[in-house]
């Protein structure tokens, strides 16, 4: 081998090796799912029937942890984007990773909700509102943008196969549903005015944005499972994301219905409040059906030694929305069945969080948590072609 050929091969090897090392140090938008999964514990715990008031201290600590995680990840991701813009560009162009750009908006919205629920005890109501409003608008505006841009890119830029539909496709379209829930919480702090009513109807519009898109995507996921089955890979936990729009829509319907009573006149107010039950109970039934199906598919994948990945955080936030949704049904119906169901689901949420957290800590220790598997597959394929 001639010297310059050797240098060329060495340079190519070092370049590829450097790229792999860089991939191991990057942060993807999917990291923000851990903020969502942690924050939803605080939001769900404080509203639980029977025991919610006794968990105020626990909820506050968890909310503060989620808030700290959000600040750290936002600073880290912003620094990475400024210093190495090619990383976020590659993530944005990745057909899988790009779907998780819906996670940061939901992380902001989750922490905003916690600030409204728990912040007044620490900062006072005025300061809590001053902190929560910017978080809400950052999450809402970026979430609507994500709900438009990511599907547009999926339709026009990404190469999509017949069996490509997975739970991650829901990530960009769910943020408006979270906005609908958190937005309803601000209505009680606003004077009775056109602005208050506009926000209410705007949140119902966000409800519709997410609901219709989610129905379409859930249908595609069902079709993919029926025709292609599951791979047994780390993509399986994303099936739990389906619970996200289901549980969150029940929560939103309940919160908006309650808020309508102080925002709009009769008979519209009562109709919106009744919708919390007429819509919420049937959707809750389907959510429990999917809960069982997803659990069985996950157990099947674990028996086949499904590897850990950050997708395991999909066990947390979606289950958390089922807790808050069930709590809303308990509030509107007064039935003990929903009250105890909320507590049982909360126990599952804690178990899911512990499982994801332990896996993440193990991944940190092994250094694999920073790995971008999709990009590495591309690198390996390119090497093979060479």
UniProtKB/TrEMBL annotation:
One Pfam family from the record: SLAC1
Membrane topology: Multi-pass membrane protein
Signal peptide annotation: none
Biological processes, Gene Ontology terms: transmembrane transport
CDD domains: TDT_like_2 (cd09320)
Cellular localisation: Cell membrane
InterPro entries: SLAC1/Mae1/Ssu1/TehA (IPR004695), Sulfite_efflux_TDT (IPR051629), Voltage-dep_anion_channel_sf (IPR038665)
Similarity remark: Belongs to the tellurite-resistance/dicarboxylate transporter (TDT) family.
Name of the protein in question: Potassium-tellurite ethidium and proflavin transporter
């Amino acid at each position: 081998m001639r010297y310059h050929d050797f240098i060329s091969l060495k340079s190519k090897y070092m370049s590829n090796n450097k790229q792999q090392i860089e991939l191991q140090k990057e942060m993807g938008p999917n990291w923000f799912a851990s903020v969502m999964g942690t924050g939803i514990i605080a939001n769900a715990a404080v509203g639980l029937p029977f025991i919610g008031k006794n968990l105020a201290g626990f909820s506050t600590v968890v909310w503060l942890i989620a808030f700290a995680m959000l600040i750290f990840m936002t600073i880290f991701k912003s620094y990475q984007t400024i210093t190495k813009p090619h990383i976020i560009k590659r993530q944005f162009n990745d057909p899988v990773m790009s779907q998780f750009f819906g996670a940061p908006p939901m992380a902001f919205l989750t922490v905003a909700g916690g600030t409204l629920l728990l912040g007044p005890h620490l900062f006072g109501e005025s300061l809590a509102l001053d902190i929560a409003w910017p978080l809400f608008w950052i999450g809402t505006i970026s979430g609507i943008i994500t709900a438009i841009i990511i599907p547009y890119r999926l339709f026009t830029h990404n190469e999509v196969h017949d069996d490509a539909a997975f739970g991650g496709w829901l990530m960009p379209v769910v943020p408006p549903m979270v906005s609908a829930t958190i937005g309803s919480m601000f209505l009680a702090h606003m004077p009775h005015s056109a602005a208050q009513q506009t926000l209410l109807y705007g949140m119902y519009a966000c409800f519709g944005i997410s609901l219709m898109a989610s129905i379409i995507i859930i249908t595609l996921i069902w079709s993919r499972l029926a025709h292609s089955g599951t791979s047994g890979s780390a993509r399986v936990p994303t099936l739990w994301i389906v619970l996200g729009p289901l549980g969150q829509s029940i929560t939103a319907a309940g919160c908006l219905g309650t808020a309508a009573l102080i925002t709009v006149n009769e008979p519209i107010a009562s109709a919106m409040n009744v919708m919390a039950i007429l819509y919420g109970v049937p959707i809750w039934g389907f959510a429990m059906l999917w809960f069982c199906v997803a659990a069985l598919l996950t157990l099947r994948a674990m028996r086949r030694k499904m590897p850990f990945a950050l997708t395991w955080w999909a066990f947390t936030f979606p289950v958390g929305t089922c807790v808050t949704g069930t709590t809303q049904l308990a509030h509107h119906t007064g039935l003990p069945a929903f009250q105890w169901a909320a507590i049982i689901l909360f126990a599952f949420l804690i178990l899911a969080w512990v499982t994801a957290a332990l896996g993440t800590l193990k991944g940190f220790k092994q250094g694999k948590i920073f790995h971008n598997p999709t990009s590495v597959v591309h690198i390996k394929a390119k090497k093979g072609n060479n």
